[in-house]
Amino acid sequence: MKPHFWRPPVLSTERVTLRPFVNEDAEALFEYAKNPNVTRFTLWDAHQTVADTNTFIRDYAVLRYMEGMPEPYAITLNPAPQPVGACGCFWAAEPHRTMELGYWIGEPFWGKGYVAEACRAVLGLAFAEFGPERMQARVIDGNAASGRVLEKLGFRYEGTLRRALLRRGRFEDVRMYSLTREEWGRDQKPEIT
Ligand SMILES: CC(C)(COP(=O)(O)OP(=O)(O)OC[C@H]1O[C@@H](n2cnc3c(N)ncnc32)[C@H](O)[C@@H]1OP(=O)(O)O)[C@@H](O)C(=O)NCCC(=O)NCCS
Fold first, then answer.
1. Residue 83 lies in a domain
2. What's the CA angle centered on 129, arms 116 and 11, to 5 degrees?
3. Which of 26, 88, 99, 111 could anchor a disulfide with 132, C-beta 3.0 to 4.6 Å?
4. pLDDT at residue 193, rounded to an integer
5. What range(s) does the N-acetyltransferase domain occupy (predicted)?
């Protein structure tokens, strides 16, 4: 456990800044988290009221920060400070050095490459500071955009866990993706010409 005031470090890319959530983010995040199009393929349900978003920040986010995890990060688009989505990674199985990546962004911002850009920064931090051997990501079958994000990040599709998730009264097939420490290190090296 980390001290209660510990927060993951702010990460910046050309277009995106990732920072820990603060309580004041609830109203802005709710605008996107209430959209059922966003939650079509997520484990969490669309927020019904801003109280749901408050709970996400006060309970889920703060607990993860106390565990020392870089998750969830607020995705903000430079130079605006308001959150438009969330991403991050956490230990799926620490004894096996396996972390898991998660992400979402508000519908008005889909298809602009923001999530791939944000996740690249998270991966950089995770591989440098947390030392996972394997980064995995699970995608509910049918979420092609999410699979594409992972491909752009260098993840490999490993196979499908059939009917592995009971969600909203339905069994879902789950596509498993992974990126190893070695692949990340190799792909980050500048090309020798
Ligand atoms: C999935 C999601 C995170 C992608 O974020 P994004 O910022 O739009 O992603 P990017 O722009 O970096 O990349 C999306 C890629 O998917 C492609 N894509 C979008 N819709 C697609 C579809 N229906 N079929 C195939 N590819 C699709 C885009 O063309 C793009 O690829 P390209 O850069 O080669 O053109 C975003 O749509 C989202 O938040 N969805 C709702 C929440 C969610 O599903 N989260 C993931 C749970 S595993």
1. yes
2. 45
3. 99
4. 47
5. 16-181
* Ranges in the chain, pLDDT < 50: 193
Cβ contacts of 113 within 8 Å, gap of 6 or more: 152
- CATH number of 77's domain: 3.40.630.30
User: What was the pLDDT predicted at 189?
Assistant: 57
Work out the angle between the directed axes of helices 114-129 and 144-152 (0-180°, nearest 10): 50
Q: Looking at the domain assignment, is residue 2 inside a domain?
A: no
Give me ligand 1 centre to Cα 1, in Å: 34
Q: Is residue 5 part of a domain?
A: no
Residue 129 has a pLDDT of 96
* 110 touches ligand 1 (CB under 6 Å): yes
Centre of ligand 1 from the C-alpha of residue 109, in Å: 10
Tens digits of per-residue pLDDT, 120-148? 999 999 999 999 999 999 999 999 999 99
Q: Which domain holds residue 80?
A: 11-188
Place of tokens 């979420």: 143
